[in-house]
Amino acid sequence: MSISYLEAIREAQSLALENDENVFIYGQDVGAFGGAFKATKNLFQKYPDRVIDSPISEDAMVGLAVGAAIEGMRPIIEMQFADFSSVGFNQIVNQAATLFWRTAVPCPITIRLPSGGTPGSGPFHSQCMETIYAHYPGTIVMTPATVEDAYSMLLEAIAIDDPVIFCEHKYLYYHLKSDSLPKQTLPAKSARIVRSGRHATVVTYSAMLHEALRAADNMKNDGYEIEVVDLRCIKPIDMSTVLGSIARTGRVLAIGEAFPWGGVTSEIISRISSEGFNLLDAPPVRLNSIDTPIPYHPDLWRYHRPTASSVEEELRKLIRE
Amino acid sequence: MSISYLEAIREAQSLALENDENVFIYGQDVGAFGGAFKATKNLFQKYPDRVIDSPISEDAMVGLAVGAAIEGMRPIIEMQFADFSSVGFNQIVNQAATLFWRTAVPCPITIRLPSGGTPGSGPFHSQCMETIYAHYPGTIVMTPATVEDAYSMLLEAIAIDDPVIFCEHKYLYYHLKSDSLPKQTLPAKSARIVRSGRHATVVTYSAMLHEALRAADNMKNDGYEIEVVDLRCIKPIDMSTVLGSIARTGRVLAIGEAFPWGGVTSEIISRISSEGFNLLDAPPVRLNSIDTPIPYHPDLWRYHRPTASSVEEELRKLIRE
Amino acid sequence: MANSANQNQKLNGKLSTIAVDTYRWMVLARTFEDRISNIYRAGKIVGGVYVGKGQEAFSASLASQLMKGQDIYSPLIRDMAGRAAFGEPLIDAARTYLGSAQGPSVGRDGNVHRGNSQEGMPTMISHLGAMISVVCGMLFARRLRKKLNTVVGAACIGDGATSTGAFHEALNMAAVEKLPLIISIANNQFAYSTPTDRQFACNELVDRAAGYGVNGININGTDLVECIEGFEKVISLARAGDGPQIVVGNLLRLSGHGEHDDAPYVSNEMRSSDLGQDCLLKAKNKIIEESWCTENECNEIQEQATVEVNAAIAQAESEKGPNPYSHDWNAYSSPSFRK
Amino acid sequence: MANSANQNQKLNGKLSTIAVDTYRWMVLARTFEDRISNIYRAGKIVGGVYVGKGQEAFSASLASQLMKGQDIYSPLIRDMAGRAAFGEPLIDAARTYLGSAQGPSVGRDGNVHRGNSQEGMPTMISHLGAMISVVCGMLFARRLRKKLNTVVGAACIGDGATSTGAFHEALNMAAVEKLPLIISIANNQFAYSTPTDRQFACNELVDRAAGYGVNGININGTDLVECIEGFEKVISLARAGDGPQIVVGNLLRLSGHGEHDDAPYVSNEMRSSDLGQDCLLKAKNKIIEESWCTENECNEIQEQATVEVNAAIAQAESEKGPNPYSHDWNAYSSPSFRK
Ligand SMILES: Cc1ncc(C[n+]2csc(CCOP(=O)(O)OP(=O)(O)O)c2C)c(N)n1
Ligand SMILES: Cc1ncc(C[n+]2csc(CCOP(=O)(O)OP(=O)(O)O)c2C)c(N)n1
Ligand SMILES: [Mg+2]
Ligand SMILES: [Mg+2]
User: Fewer CB within 10 Å: N-end or C-end of chain D?
Assistant: First the structure.
């Protein structure tokens, strides 16, 4: 058996629908059609009442989810692309994320954001929006990088009594495969050391994990052992795993695909510097995409975001420091 | 003569309307009524065609501004409260901020956001949204902390050929006064050393500047000299002024009123750690509001955001490090 | 239709009861809000005070005909009367205004930002239009759980809020899902200072209904009987499966936007027009005229309201505000994510 | 109205010219998009391809009656025909699809994301509904500068996009400002896979018009003459100061949502219904039937289109893509903020 990242997302939703009658999926074209990326394929056929096509109304979609959550349901909202959640931004950060704090009523909704760049997707079908949502109190933001995590973290997201922004990466949808779905799982809020090393730590998440791993592979030939930490959940951040790693390596590079001002790499480096200053043997380093919208042309796009080779370049500089 | 922060904003708009026929103001109640905070008082009376009441349609308000900018106008959009710009978020970050990059047509719009907490304003009339807008490529984000800057930076914002998010702080509107409007001005993109010192640097902006200055005053009695840097513009950030200060003090505390995950303090500390690691004699420190929505009750509110006394506490710890 | 005389009579029997009941809530709301305004003017309320003066008939007529513990009611800033009629304890309102830690939001939010969603009254956020889709979701959930039955959900907004995208998306969604949603639009002629001709260009807001494929009615919001009958009609239609309903109440805000605002932009003509009539006085006259109550009984209603208001305010004033040091500073509900 | 026969005759004189002109752009668009689809299928286009097959008559009839260099035209994903009719050079389209660095977006954006706002054609962003208020702003600016005169601005959208808050806010704003805005709604029965009954519940989308206080018409979008006449009418109304206009064209998308989609959700009945008629074939028949052109002339139009398309594509294919190393990686326009 071989299962893709996308199929894992579908399987998790299928299982959630099966196990809990309070779960339903609402989004554009998620019904009979199975979704723009087929993440809900065949689910409508099995659960026709609970896999529902929405109008093109991202604001109202999220509002509806909050209302349903108030009544005890556990809605999953599929945004057709993460980028379009900008239209639902207000309801996400001001309605959903504040509900529990304002009213003591939990808000167990999961908002699935097909995120990140792929060649030719351009400025409005490629965005990573984790930063925006993580900034607001009350949200949990998950960014799975593996097939196993896509599955287990989505199940956990649906089970959590708080709004979860689930950033699934489109670049991983079809390419990333695994032999099986996980039996035992790490809680979503824990980071994972994916590869151990001693010369430097890379802290990253989502699709960038794979660029980091490729860079680490390349550098092995030269005797460099790079430790790679997958954050998995970017809000909250599991700082103890991160700091534990830096305690061993003394050097850190944080990588993110999002825009460079603010965001996960900034939060990570800032917290490492405050909380683990004395662990550092060299200045901590960040690598993000370039500070422009995400370009359409594949040649521009590959240059715009971090890749194994730019990661490697940064790591070599970092180790020489 | 004495002029308040709010009056300075009004004067700047008045001058801009007078000097350039392409400038107009569009927003809810900005016309005959003069705006919810009276920031446009009497301007409609002088420029009835160019100070215009909008419907309650933040998305379309920003879209209209972009269209007018395409035609060569220089619109000023007043959001009634920064918090409501969440509804115009999509047009700001995806339409306005990308326009020049996509089409080579400049987008000289200014979006005024009455920002920040005041007692009793609660979770939806108190937000600081600079982080959200600064994250996106193409925006310039200004956060004036003084009467003089409110005036000169707003004039500069209107003159700039890129979209400027102008975060004016409501807490400063009436309380902050100055004797006169500035003649000579520092460019908006430069940070300013407001107070010099040698024991530690505080990097901050907007209303928090005044909390920092009070803390610095208090500590003077004990012989501590605190240098205070006002960022003024939080995107882009003038790192050379910041690093220059840290080169003198070796210690830094970054303060922001916004939510703690990400944001200005995170970006600042992260960049200081990367770019000025060897200047630091102690771990860099951040102070933000608490990670919940902004509370209504004044007693909760005062505890939620940083104040002179919490700043002082952090500074004393920092200096002892 | 055939025996409408008969039906009218039946309704009339009911009408007197509903009218007096609704009037009671109107009086309570007016009395409470007058007190709150005074306290505000004395500088003892932090934040804004937004009252429903002139809108009580419209607001309460909807809520008094909803079934507490079953239906859903989402009030907005000028719905003190509706809140009371829907069953909100007066003490909740007093506590929220006065910042008591025992209020429904424990001091975290103030003034009109209170509710009890487990009792069918969700707590509003400030962003106009944003609550309508929440009511859609509550109704949608009940239908999914096969608990919808004859439940209806009402969402209140003002004329200005009809310009929001949120209003449009939610109404359209409700129409597509044929949800038993009632949108009650209090057209008080202004959004803050902005008159309706800067807000929309249709002849009547109710002309929007056809564009969504829903039913809509236009009523005189200053007239208690017209309000009761109008809401009665749309509530039964919604209960019977007719889908979303729009009710536009034409009236005038008899206060400023908030108590800080003396509303110089409202012309004297408008104030002295029919729209500017005080629904409370009109209702009292009507009730006496129809002999549903005597003048004495009406005065008793007022006295009782005063007693209740005094008690609630005294109680709230005697209570402590939240203590920041022991406050639960947690935005998460899930135990494993709480600090 | 009195001498409408006379008027009709006048129009008819014009009609034949406009019809043939419009038909030319329809043919050009179809020919171009057919080629682009083939190139896409051959794996040589990165990203999506969205075509206007079946919508050419509706799309081009609007644009061919606008005045280039004066009016504003904001096309969406299915408006290749309208873009061409409004004067977009074919090479701009070819370059954008094929990623040439010489295209209007220099490779920064692709496929349908091209425009030239200085020529009155703003470049779309993907967020549906978001361009309408931009057109409002362009018209608003011209009015402020006293350069509006008889200018009109058109914004194109689909049935699905009417569910967005952006659509509502912009249309309402245009109505309040009485802007000469034409919203052209191509109701192609689907938004991606979603049929209109999951998108709205009104009988006809044109029923929305009254709710905004604007004029609206409903036309058969597969019929070239009806499209020309319909748009002619609303364009003159808008020019004459009648405010916003809505035109709903009923038709069927004769392609998938994108060329990756074979649209199994479109039923055979619908495909073979009147809505499913190919506007291009119908137009050709009509033109020949009315003797506006001979069959030969029609074939020449096709041949000429093929020549132009071949040339544009060959040219674009021969050009280089952008070079990331020398690319201007700057999102700011102001010199003092550029790196
Ligand atoms: C999205 C949004 N924009 C702006 C505001 C600020 N605001 C609060 S009340 C108000 C006027 C509302 O007018 P209307 O809907 O007619 O209600 P009314 O106050 O007349 O009852 C405005 C503009 C807001 N709350 N939400
Ligand atoms: C705000 C927003 N949400 C979702 C999408 C994704 N999307 C792109 S096209 C489309 C369907 C559009 O349907 P319609 O408006 O009818 O136009 P058509 O494709 O039929 O021409 C969707 C949902 C989007 N572009 N913008
Ligand atoms: Mg109003
Ligand atoms: Mg469509």
Answer: N
